Amino acid sequence: MNPRPTLLFLASLLAVSAAEIPPADWQIKTAVLAAPKAQQDAATVLGYDAGGAVVTLRAGTNHLICLADDPKQDGFSVACYHKALEPFMARGRELAAQGKKAVEITKIREDEVKSGQLHMPDRGVLNVTTGKREATTGEITELYTRYVVYIPYATPETTGIPLAPATPGGPWIMDPGTHRAHIMINPPKPK
Questions:
Q1: Which of 21, 100, 174, 189 has the fewest Cβ atoms within 10 angstroms?
Q2: Which residues contact 69 (CB under 8 A, 6 or more apart)?
Q3: What span, in angstroms and rounded, lies between the C-alpha atoms of 151 and 121?
Q4: Quick one: pLDDT band at residue 19, thresholds 50, 70, 90?
Q5: Angstrom distances, CA of residue 6 to CA of 1, 59, 79
Q6: What is the C-alpha separation between 91 and 76, in angstroms, rounded?
């Protein structure tokens, strides 16, 4: 299992050709799968327009922002996060669109958070849902959600969460002591 699914997913949001872009209604329907059911209908959904740019496909009324499937990725992957994380996430998308690599995006955002130029909330939750997408019908199967709780500058000492999962699925803390410190929870995949 890739320990950095959120960074890789969010850093990969670059412009794509129109031929690869699913219709907006399909993007909305799939993006909200990463949100709790009771919050799906009111979530804001970001996805791709016909030109391949990331745009707001649907304005929402609650605290969630969901990112539609990246058409360049194999399979299916969407994310929903609290709107307080949007400046941080939007900056990552902006830097990725400029051609920056993941390690550069991390460094730039860290410097900007430390300088106060970029706001990082005290806490923020992100859900990433993956699965398999059937190429012809678009049917999605084998859904799996992992959870990320951002707590900037958190450490094992301040949270009581270890650096490695003590049990399958966690929780464990990644990037401790940094602006992107987060707790990972990967529930066991259904069989």
A1: 189
A2: 22, 27, 30, 31, 47, 76, 77, 78, 133
A3: 8
A4: low
A5: 12, 23, 8
A6: 23
Report the percent of the chain where pLDDT is more than 90.
Answer: 51
Q: Which of 49, 47, 40 is nearest to 17 (CA)?
A: 49
How many CB atoms lie under 10 A from the CB of residue 109? 22
Structure-block tokens of residue 75: 């399979």
Residue recorded with tokens 């969010």 = 10
pLDDT band for position 150 (cuts 50, 70, 90): very high
- At 187, the amino acid letter reads P
For residue 73, the model assigns a pLDDT of 62
The number of residues in the chain equals 191
Tokens at 130, concatenated = 């993956």
